[in-house]
Amino acid sequence: MKIGKATAPRSAICTSNEDRIVVRGHDLARDLIGQVGFGDYFFLLLTGRKPDAAASAVLNSTLVAIAEHGLVPSVQAARMTMAAAPDAMQGAVAAGLLGSGSVILGASETAGRMFVEIDQAAAGGDLHAAARAVVSARREKKLPIPGYGHPEHKRRDPRVDALFNVSARAGGGQRFIEIAKAVEDVIPEVVGKDLKLNVSAAIPAVLLGVGFPVNALKGVPMLARTASLIAHLNEELDDPIGFALSYQATREYLYTGKMPEGGR
Amino acid sequence: MKIGKATAPRSAICTSNEDRIVVRGHDLARDLIGQVGFGDYFFLLLTGRKPDAAASAVLNSTLVAIAEHGLVPSVQAARMTMAAAPDAMQGAVAAGLLGSGSVILGASETAGRMFVEIDQAAAGGDLHAAARAVVSARREKKLPIPGYGHPEHKRRDPRVDALFNVSARAGGGQRFIEIAKAVEDVIPEVVGKDLKLNVSAAIPAVLLGVGFPVNALKGVPMLARTASLIAHLNEELDDPIGFALSYQATREYLYTGKMPEGGR
Amino acid sequence: MKIGKATAPRSAICTSNEDRIVVRGHDLARDLIGQVGFGDYFFLLLTGRKPDAAASAVLNSTLVAIAEHGLVPSVQAARMTMAAAPDAMQGAVAAGLLGSGSVILGASETAGRMFVEIDQAAAGGDLHAAARAVVSARREKKLPIPGYGHPEHKRRDPRVDALFNVSARAGGGQRFIEIAKAVEDVIPEVVGKDLKLNVSAAIPAVLLGVGFPVNALKGVPMLARTASLIAHLNEELDDPIGFALSYQATREYLYTGKMPEGGR
Amino acid sequence: MKIGKATAPRSAICTSNEDRIVVRGHDLARDLIGQVGFGDYFFLLLTGRKPDAAASAVLNSTLVAIAEHGLVPSVQAARMTMAAAPDAMQGAVAAGLLGSGSVILGASETAGRMFVEIDQAAAGGDLHAAARAVVSARREKKLPIPGYGHPEHKRRDPRVDALFNVSARAGGGQRFIEIAKAVEDVIPEVVGKDLKLNVSAAIPAVLLGVGFPVNALKGVPMLARTASLIAHLNEELDDPIGFALSYQATREYLYTGKMPEGGR
């Protein structure tokens, strides 16, 4: 059954024959292996071009910043899955990745799109006015302000300044950092509470300044968390806690349904 | 319901409070972001120690080597999934990762375990004799020889020498490369055909020489392929081929079941 | 780290102790096993009440109608995944399920929501007018009309009348079937082509008439397709075609990227 | 790239054209929708034949028995995933299914294979002797005895007798039930503790007696749990506990790694 129009598959990422593998126009064995770090290779795979020094520094720093934050829900889901199905680590990684949705890791992309909207709304004009307009419009539609506020880090998430410093040192564009800060400035008056920039807003703020495509932003937390998930699952093999997490989670479990008539 | 013994979950990977996040004994914001590349951070997450220069060079080169090889089955599965469920890129990445099983990407780990077995069998003695014994034992049990032979690269997979060169230049241990070559040498007489080293054997050969744990080997192709999957899914958003792949796949489809009585 | 407000988990679905398991107020071993079919049990799990005869007939017929339609993309993704990772059938089922997204199987839910909207817009009045208004509004927002048109079945999908007949015979409510037909009637004038009702619209049309909750509609194709995926993966174990599908899919593959300078 | 031999995909499950869909030799719209329950359709999809009355009763009862057991680890993983990625229910179902591995739901298949082995070992002779031999051989290889013992139900799991009663009433073959009981009888002397039959052993014991294929056993808990997962995720949409589970799980979390020098 034919769905849609395209019938011959095509891709600009890779081709190969018996003697060589070409990735984004480069001979993999001759020109990439040993000559480009893995973070930079991710940039090349995604965009088709090698990152410059600023893009390399910024992308690697965001991947490091977002990879690991302890036993977050997706790590718990992955470790429980590993405990139940230890033969298939790929399944446990997949279970963890499936938690990279709109609520948790998706905020990097949504915040990035909000910053692009503010950039365009401001044109050459006042950033704070544009930020106020865009944030207000989101509030009116009852949309959250992605990338601001954090359940644990009430002051500013410490990763935010670390990322901003990397961007400044590496010579990354500062425009979207200014936008991110403008949003932070206008939030108290528009939202009525003081929500500080968190890592999910800092990531697009620094990446958009080095030419990282907004469409690919969601890939950054996904790749980063995969590294963390693999580390946790490796630890799970040595020192399992998957069932302990599950046991703890339901110690105060309350059944709110009915009980059968008769019986005990 | 309590399954197993451990009841309080513990982990040596990460802890955090309102002001800082500690990963493997380092302050994430102060000491890691901007100071360590993503490939090296993966090593730290997994092993608890920062890689030395040789480990860094070798690990990054293996991640680059195995990430991308075109429209392999798992990339096709991911792109088809993305076409059907475009709102949830994490689902398409997960679908692709679920193909990282024993037949395809699992070979890196299995080959690594075989090399460790040969290393121990050889002790200080003859590597070729130990390789012959271990390979013969696998053949007797009708097990495949993981990491040798390739459907496309009949001569040696070009990534193999590239990885071996990185290891030599970076000063990585050469012991497991010698073992991998010894296996290649004995295969013709034991197996009866000439199966050349492929990238799945080269990866553990270079990684075991820089202290990468054998248990974590399967994580390398998984993390690497995640980068490739994200790049392909990003391309799928711009230039969809998921349904085209599916259409092509069944152009010669043959139904081998029965037909109902009556009707057309 | 605490995210959100609720801290003690609760559920109305199941509780158990050493001697019995209670599901939705019934003793599982005493009152359900052997006394309720699996389709009906799904209704009970979802809604908390046992289906009446009409609901049982209609729900089972929809599950049968949508389970299997040959080597659709999600089945292909699952069979490719099984070929690559044969030890973990759960991973291949999961890969197939991940294709149950908004484009493919999600249409049952979206069509159901559209029918509810038309029902409310019509109140006691003219169904065709309400259908015209709602369909026109979707067109203005450039939204698709979910559940109408089919790439293969240009006349009406044969499953549609089969489901409508089951509903009529079983005494299910006909209101949403009338709405579904009213939408079909107004599509030519509003959309400009003749898109016939397909199975994804027929499913909510019959289910909403027997009290099936609109929120749970997306569960019907998901459960149904799981049955089909398991059957295909069982066949894959006996007679593998996963790699053949992948090979066929790329026979006409076109690399649209650059080639390296130099080399072959 | 061609992997393996088969190049034209084939399947005996389904074919379709513009006017009809044929499943396992039956016209889906004419002969199956409305005429076969969903549990029976699963049997047809899997085996190619319609179940007789005994097979229908037994298969439906096993699906009902194993579907739901409260907030087990895979349900927790699914609800956490749903909380983090609420737009993609298929991802949360998949995350739950990925916990259907060798340790948890895989026991139905492993127990079934053990029973077949005992059946063949006994030939026409003494079942207890054959059971003793097979169980002893597993113990010597340090393999678990799948389907015996339960963390909560120390006496016999109440679902076991319910399933055995269904089989007896429906006229299912009793041979594998006798084998299952023989294993229970010999366990105290061979294993040294009294491990009672649990539901994972009762399922293959009744299914093998009605001609259900041993290879397909693992599909029964997978399909059953999918129904439960969908019910839990539907409840999660109305009354979310995913993050509460995650919060509870780590209330006693212990970080066992190092702390950085300096700082707080």
TrEMBL record, chains A, B, C, D:
The organism of origin for this protein: Ramlibacter agri
Top-level taxon of origin: Bacteria
CDD domains named in the record: CCL_ACL-C (cd06100)
One Gene Ontology molecular-function label: lyase activity
Protein's UniProt name: citrate synthase (unknown stereospecificity)
Pfam families on file: Citrate_synt
EC assignment: 2.3.3.16
NCBIfam families reported in the protein's UniProt record: PRK06224.1-5
InterPro entries associated with the record: Citrate_synth-like_sm_a-sub (IPR016143), Citrate_synthase (IPR002020), Citrate_synthase_sf (IPR036969)
SUPFAM superfamilies: Citrate synthase
Keyword annotations from UniProtKB, A to Z: Lyase, Transferase
